[in-house]
Specification:
homooctamer; alpha/beta; 5-stranded parallel sheet; 4-stranded mixed sheet; 11 strands
Amino acid sequence: MDIRELLEGVKEGRIPVEKAVLALKTAPFTDLGFAKTDNHRAIRQGCTEVIYGAGKTAEQCSAIASSLIGNGAECVMVTRCDAEKASSIKTPLDSQYHGDARILVIGKPPSPREGSRVAVVTAGTSDIPVAEEAAVTAETLGSKVIRIYDVGVSGLHRLLSKTDELMTANAVVVVAGMEGALPSVVGGLVDVPVIAVPTSVGYGASFEGVTALLSMMNSCSSDVSVVNIDNGFGAGYIAGLIDRRTTR
Amino acid sequence: MDIRELLEGVKEGRIPVEKAVLALKTAPFTDLGFAKTDNHRAIRQGCTEVIYGAGKTAEQCSAIASSLIGNGAECVMVTRCDAEKASSIKTPLDSQYHGDARILVIGKPPSPREGSRVAVVTAGTSDIPVAEEAAVTAETLGSKVIRIYDVGVSGLHRLLSKTDELMTANAVVVVAGMEGALPSVVGGLVDVPVIAVPTSVGYGASFEGVTALLSMMNSCSSDVSVVNIDNGFGAGYIAGLIDRRTTR
Amino acid sequence: MDIRELLEGVKEGRIPVEKAVLALKTAPFTDLGFAKTDNHRAIRQGCTEVIYGAGKTAEQCSAIASSLIGNGAECVMVTRCDAEKASSIKTPLDSQYHGDARILVIGKPPSPREGSRVAVVTAGTSDIPVAEEAAVTAETLGSKVIRIYDVGVSGLHRLLSKTDELMTANAVVVVAGMEGALPSVVGGLVDVPVIAVPTSVGYGASFEGVTALLSMMNSCSSDVSVVNIDNGFGAGYIAGLIDRRTTR
Amino acid sequence: MDIRELLEGVKEGRIPVEKAVLALKTAPFTDLGFAKTDNHRAIRQGCTEVIYGAGKTAEQCSAIASSLIGNGAECVMVTRCDAEKASSIKTPLDSQYHGDARILVIGKPPSPREGSRVAVVTAGTSDIPVAEEAAVTAETLGSKVIRIYDVGVSGLHRLLSKTDELMTANAVVVVAGMEGALPSVVGGLVDVPVIAVPTSVGYGASFEGVTALLSMMNSCSSDVSVVNIDNGFGAGYIAGLIDRRTTR
Amino acid sequence: MDIRELLEGVKEGRIPVEKAVLALKTAPFTDLGFAKTDNHRAIRQGCTEVIYGAGKTAEQCSAIASSLIGNGAECVMVTRCDAEKASSIKTPLDSQYHGDARILVIGKPPSPREGSRVAVVTAGTSDIPVAEEAAVTAETLGSKVIRIYDVGVSGLHRLLSKTDELMTANAVVVVAGMEGALPSVVGGLVDVPVIAVPTSVGYGASFEGVTALLSMMNSCSSDVSVVNIDNGFGAGYIAGLIDRRTTR
Amino acid sequence: MDIRELLEGVKEGRIPVEKAVLALKTAPFTDLGFAKTDNHRAIRQGCTEVIYGAGKTAEQCSAIASSLIGNGAECVMVTRCDAEKASSIKTPLDSQYHGDARILVIGKPPSPREGSRVAVVTAGTSDIPVAEEAAVTAETLGSKVIRIYDVGVSGLHRLLSKTDELMTANAVVVVAGMEGALPSVVGGLVDVPVIAVPTSVGYGASFEGVTALLSMMNSCSSDVSVVNIDNGFGAGYIAGLIDRRTTR
Amino acid sequence: MDIRELLEGVKEGRIPVEKAVLALKTAPFTDLGFAKTDNHRAIRQGCTEVIYGAGKTAEQCSAIASSLIGNGAECVMVTRCDAEKASSIKTPLDSQYHGDARILVIGKPPSPREGSRVAVVTAGTSDIPVAEEAAVTAETLGSKVIRIYDVGVSGLHRLLSKTDELMTANAVVVVAGMEGALPSVVGGLVDVPVIAVPTSVGYGASFEGVTALLSMMNSCSSDVSVVNIDNGFGAGYIAGLIDRRTTR
Amino acid sequence: MDIRELLEGVKEGRIPVEKAVLALKTAPFTDLGFAKTDNHRAIRQGCTEVIYGAGKTAEQCSAIASSLIGNGAECVMVTRCDAEKASSIKTPLDSQYHGDARILVIGKPPSPREGSRVAVVTAGTSDIPVAEEAAVTAETLGSKVIRIYDVGVSGLHRLLSKTDELMTANAVVVVAGMEGALPSVVGGLVDVPVIAVPTSVGYGASFEGVTALLSMMNSCSSDVSVVNIDNGFGAGYIAGLIDRRTTR
């Protein structure tokens, strides 16, 4: 997009060739040495910035957050961030820590859009932390989230009592471990995209979530797609994107 | 939904208890013996009916299609349907066969909705049949489809020349075999959901698409979710759902 | 059991030591060279004899069947037996071939026991051959079989309309491919053992039934146990054993 | 079942429609927020309630147990419960902790039914904890349990000396790690269902129980079905169900 | 060994340096272009030569056999050789084709050594071809072979009746598919090395022999080692080596 | 590189903005509909063009070859091309078909560079086709190739006799199936990069080359890197690149 | 064997039937509750008794050792026994602890037999503990052991310098991790059985020894059989059995 | 090479036969008992010596380093060496510890060769330690290293801005975890060998680097070969070898 504007400037002599070459190559990120922060993503993708906290020190997280906010970001999430690290991150804006979700939100997330509605569903109690990661992510992107927890398929009446809530959502995140059967059942009840998140809940032949992942990949419901094991963030992000397009 | 209406009828004596019990239990499908066709799905999920053709005879497909159309469906797709089977299926309505996609469309699919735009992208030439399955599916659900084929990551300029087309889509389907790297790259360029389809294209350690599937599950782009290997139908269906919500 | 009787005979001099040694070692089977038929199993396990037909010639099947019937068996099943082989097997008794189940039944199977009731359930149409193998096996062991086919979890109402039939069975066989979710749902509805049979129905990441198998191993319903992929015979056999104990 | 009664009440005006709708939807469970306890399972499945203790806090276990007992349960098991957690769970009834089995039994389990007999067998000494989980589970369901431990196939005479005890059981649980060969051998000796439990005992290519699981899935004995690795609870539960039907 | 002799020759001037260099490098094989036949193996390893027939044409087999016999071999085996290829191989000596074993023996194999005794055992009828490959291999190496077929673990009495024959062998080859349990049982009965051969007999979760292989690797009997799936030749070869050392 | 030149032209008014935008986006490839041929690769990567023939029709191969040659390519390889397809491809230049390697070379490959020397080594006779694919590829890139075949590790003297030839190469390709041990041994003998190619030669637990691949990934020699199973082309290409840099 | 003697006693009235039944069933082991010690194995298998120490407490090991020695064993090994446990085991006879091998030897092992010679070879330094387990086991069975350590295939001259020692052994144990190539090379040099032991030495795609195991299963040398990962005991035991038969 | 010289000496009587035999067998290494150090590798492979530090004690590392330096090595690297071990290793020469790379360099590494240029690239921040292992290794072999970090494919502009630096390198090392897509993209941009290093960075279905490894094995770029997971050393070593040949 900017290419044309840049080239017009070059043609009109307002922008020197050297500078244009540089702009084309270096503008979109800031090089912190250990990381290259993406200053254009908010423009290009229109959403809150995200720092994947696992494997980064509190210092690195602080530096990246400062760089992003210094370049105009209004809200930055740090995911996979335990309580101790969260308390060590220095933030230029007010922040809120979500313990279950292990997410630190720096700055003010947007209010829920009108008509917004994302359902987050879990099969069991142990799946809740992953579900919260999805829920907080979607909320930080401006979605209203409906939580429906512990409605696994071995007690169908629990799920069926929530059919109305499910059927009014713009997107549904389904979080399940063990045999991962819930997304297929939910997918048969709704007419919106279902994003399935396998969790590492289980033992033995659950293989840390691989069985649930494979099960979900083979869903007999056509509206189910899958993200990585325990990837609540990705599911919440995608549900948020769908919800945003639906409500704008 | 109907439960309340039914119960009101029971209360007012208009509907006998026996009949209500029966209605609650048997209404939503027709039992053909070898299959139970789902008459309510069009109502519940608001879309064209689909018959998964693999492992069904032409006779079975004909019977199911007739049952669905007899119950009011206006358009029925038969997927995974080779040319020979397609020519043996008897259809009460006009039909069109899409050879690359291996889909028979019975009846008249809807015209594309205004503002509709789904992009279907492939890494290589061999991925085209799976991409066509996605494209025809989305079209049959009322989406306008943009095809961008053979733009794999080993020659980035091919993909980059299509950035504009990608960035205006409401949803993107990315089809790739071998190392399955394309969805991550596309996911970094767009701000809409990317549905990744691994294909069985490749040899040796591609393991019939498993490597591509795993690669896509681990995408460093947050907007990528994945469906089963060679499942063009599922990807097209989900992209169609997203596109429909965006354009309504 | 016979050991004591044999030893009494030895003590009383009626049975020579040499003969007793021989009896202890060789009695329970007939050695056909390529196979050792088990003449005592009917006594020891109280049921119809079974010949696993895969990888045996029609001649071998004929010889084993003759040996078993010559030693007193009244009914012999040949499983994994295609139509061509079935028509080539020479049988000393009348026989009936079940095409879907690929089972040849030689001799007269018992009538169903009073109170007997085994339910055989499938997720889809393609699972029917495996289900028939289970059903015919249970019938040949004297069980009455209720068939409930094509009630997969993506259309729950189909299954729920059959709840009564399910809840009155003494044992339930559930046959499913793809994500293998049905046994968990059925297991939550009934209070009898559920024997789950994964099938090789599916494609891509179904891995010829492995995904369904793993999913079933991780069932969140406590009453589910699992047999090998496509092993309808084993499931029908076990359901028959349970049904028999319940009804005797 | 209750549906009819409810509908009769609606028809006669005794039950308002609103209340019936609510009843149909919400009755069968109590929503504790983090969990939905299943109040109807005892009725529907006729047995003691079970709390899967892994991944739940002592407080959560206490709350669920209280809810179940408050709704009429007479006996509640908490499985996968280590000694420390067991001592922290507050129980409204007397309780007993089984250390080997890691099961806390709250309330009074039923006395063994007449004629009841479940055999629990292990290949080695290290398999005993899993076997105890099965044994205590079956006992809590009202079964009499015969324990036959350390009779692996490399010393056949140990197993053969127990043939009589095995052959009089109504159901047999076989627990084995390493190559998982014992269920096949036991399955050849008895004429009742054998529930095989692979254990994570072993090293190297035992893959934490996967080899035993696969071995058991391929058993050449027709009466063997399999549950998840280390799932003593499931095996004991299923054996208890079979034993109960046999003895009622 | 020859190195010293060669060096003595060099020292005494009988052998020129150039020639010695050449001898050290090129003597032990004949280069046929597509293959380098190993002329010293008979000397180095003291046994009949073997040509692995799979993936070689009849012409290539003929050429290698001729080269070996021309260099002094008295007996050459061609393994993995179907009947058609066997009939096309031109042999300078009389030959005998073993159909079950798929082995062509060219030249005269040695007579059995005194005291020689190798037992070859199978679990089922379908394992016989692999067992025959082992048996013919051992016989061609000069061993006397005792065949004990179809004595799988689900009917223990069949195996136990053969205990005497097993306990007098110098080495035992055990061939089994499916769950691969037989070597553990045999290993507990004998005090000689047991060479276990997994076979690809089975279906579903037998994974073409992988389950049997893993099971055998985890044998609880200490005297069991394992060769590749269907590798009857290797097992017969090793059993022959042990038998030879025992009887010399 | 061209960017600067293009921008200079824009600045001087020689190149219109519209045209520059177009040039930046569309120049580097020709869109054939089913494929986008890469016209700049010869410039960018300085070598002969390659068409991966598997899954392309003779017509598609002809069209792509014509497009490439029409854009200036002097030599084009078609890999994974069987004899029948090769004979159906229409070529604007003379061509030569290499049957073992399954490669069609269109146009005139360069003569070997001075000092060029790539060794291609195989463990067995069955590995030769993959080795030939590597050898012909390297030759077409201007390398002189030394072929050393059938020198597997079970007869070390065969390999050791070729040490001199190995030690003078600029790069070594080692092709092996089964246990894939040869690259480690060769890697210990030479001081140049070894590119290891696992082949699908083997049976049973060779898993179609996976075992060889894993073995090679774990080589104890530091100079070994690995390409995909049966990927002779890739190995030859990389060896050619190294050889070219060494000799220029 | 004893069966005949027992039966003679029964015939002659010296042994009551009841007692004979009991003897046949219970004689060969002592039931310690948690374990059934095998008193006949020394007779049946002619060797030192072995206690697998992993997962047994020092008290259990003490009790089993006492029972075995009380029943006549002269030498008992406790394998997989760390130093701490070894020091806590109470032994009725003098004992010696081998730290590298993690083996406690209770009682006096036999002196090496004349002519005895077992070679134990490792690829690297890290493989030594597994090799020592093999070596100490073989020594405890009466073998003389030659240790050849750190002779991996990336430096062939190290191995070749030991050819003489290798070629005079009656059996060879080869211990290797990573790519597991050494057994194939050794197998090509000797004419006795090679027992290969994969070790968990390595990282990444070594998969804790699985790659080495698979590599060894596919050895191109015919005389190689394989035991479980890190199973030095099994390999030493088998080598000891072969060595014993060779030397008696 | 030395063989000829040795043989000349033998011929002329200067070298006794005994001594020549010994020299041929024992010269190239020093036997430290637990290790055999390779004194000829520097001559044979022309590079700095390397000690793989994992699983060796500081004492063992010290002894091996001393032996190598005592035999003439000027520079010795200890890889996989944590800070604590590094500080305990006694070195006869000055040493430098590289913390990120976990490498201790003993002695003086060579200065960079003229024209030398190796690029080391990472996808993310977490891949840097593996990249540093590669970089320090290449530097110690005399290469100049260009580091390009955190340029993963989800933000292509970061990578594209570095195209010039990439295209002037003699060899490129690409380090990536998760989906491992970066090597394919880099491979399409350059015309030199790309050595891809999968890292264990990621979670869930990344399987500790296996997904990245498989992805890289299937690269659609022809110039990519792969080393083991996290094997930065191997990649740096190979890149160094290529760079050395290019620049000499």
